[in-house]
Amino acid sequence: MFYKKKRLFIFLISLILIVGLIGFSLQKRTNLTVLEDFIHDTVGWVQEVVNKPIAFTTSFANNVKEIRNVYRENQKLKSSLEELRQLEYQNQELTKEITELQETLNKTESDFLQNFNSIQASVIAKSKDQWFNLVTINKGSQNGIAPNMAVITGQGMIGKVQTSSPFTSTVLLLNGFDQSNRISVNVDVAETETDISGFIVGYDEESEHLLLELNETYQELAEGQSVFSSGLGGVFPKGLEIGEIVKVEADKYELTSIAYVKPSADLEHFNHVIVIDRNMATMEGQAEEDAS
Questions:
Q1: CA atoms of 160 and 136, how far apart (whole Å)
Q2: Among 34, 114, 150, 242, fewest CB within 10 Å belongs to which?
Q3: Sign (positive or negative) of CA dihedral 56, 59, 61, 64
Q4: Cα 198 from Cα 258, distance rounded (Å)
Q5: What residues are paired with 250 via a beta bridge?
Q6: Which H, E and C letters describe the chain, residue by residue?
Q7: How deeply is 42 buried, as exposed, middle or buried, from its count of CB atoms within 10 A (0-12, 13-18, 19+)?
């Protein structure tokens, strides 16, 4: 019985102390007790120790997530940029293709080619080595193509047919010509009544110009004058545009003139050509005469 009363007494005393402490702590005071200071500082330090790792972990996780998002966005942007570059390249290639086709069509419909049988063809292979510059086209003898026919683009002459099989032909480009494949040409000189004649005898690899050799020194030759096929020799039709003179010099004996001619046509970048049969005009003329 005494033990129970003792416990009750201790409980009441403790309750009174707790209520007193609560009331005391609720009072408006500017100064805290030593015990309150200790408790506040301890709780604050414990919170700081606990919160710092949590804050660091949370910040690190957020940074990792942000880096992953930035990486994904960067990959998407790179993919989009690559697609844009591909589209731009395709657009440029299509523009070049359309321009070349338009030039070829305009050349085919020109008054000059109306006198010849012109055969349109496309390049299917290119071969360039130290000695020859050749391309293969998708038309052959079945289409009326034969060796030594002139080959042009919408810009000018590029070469001649070297060999012809039933369905394909090989074209020797002007930058592969030499003394055995020379072209008889005329230079259009406005100051003279007659054109100056000569031969394209080769190609200078260093300057990337055709070499025009004349039989004598001509003072009238100058930069900017146009060079055309003369029609002599029975191989190429007369009037095919070959190039433009960029430099004239005399040979070492000063007996003849050598002119450097810039080709009118691009001899490297083309996909469509026109093969010209120079005999067509003669055959049609004879047929008309026979009919009359």
A1: 11
A2: 34
A3: negative
A4: 10
A5: 257
A6: CHHHHHHHHHHHHHHHHHHHHHHHHHCCCCCCCHHHHHHHHHHHHHHHHHHHHHHHHHHHHHHHHHHHHHHHHHHHHHHHHHHHHHHHHHHHHHHHHHHHHHHHHHHHCCCHHHHCEEEEEEEEEEEECCCCEEEEECCCHHHCCCCCCEEECCCCEEEEEEEECCCCEEEEEHHHCCHHHCEEEEECCCCCCCCEEEEEEEEECCCCEEEEEECCCCCCCCCCCEEEECCCCCCCCCCCEEEEEEEEEECCCCCCEEEEEEECCCCCCCCEEEEEECCHHHHHHHHHHHHC
A7: exposed
Q: Which of 211, 132, 219 is nearest to 170 (CA)?
A: 132
Instruction: Specify whether the CB–CB gap between 142 and 126 falls below 8 A.
Output: no
pLDDT tens, position by position, 104-135:
777 776 666 677 888 889 999 887 665 568 99
Q: Cα–Cα distance between 173 and 280 in angstroms, integer?
A: 23
Is 0.85 topped by the overall pTM?
no
The residue among 203, 197, 202, 209 whose CA lies nearest residue 257 is: 197
> Largest Cα–Cα distance of the chain, in whole Å?
157
Q: Two tokens at 175?
A: 């930058």
Sign of CA dihedral 95, 101, 104, 109: negative
For the stretch 54-108, pLDDT in tens is 666 777 677 777 888 887 888 888 788 877 888 777 777 777 777 777 777 777 7
Burial of 185 (0-12, 13-18, 19+ CB in 10 A): buried
End-to-end CA distance of the chain: 157
Give the tokens for residue 142. Answer: 């079945």
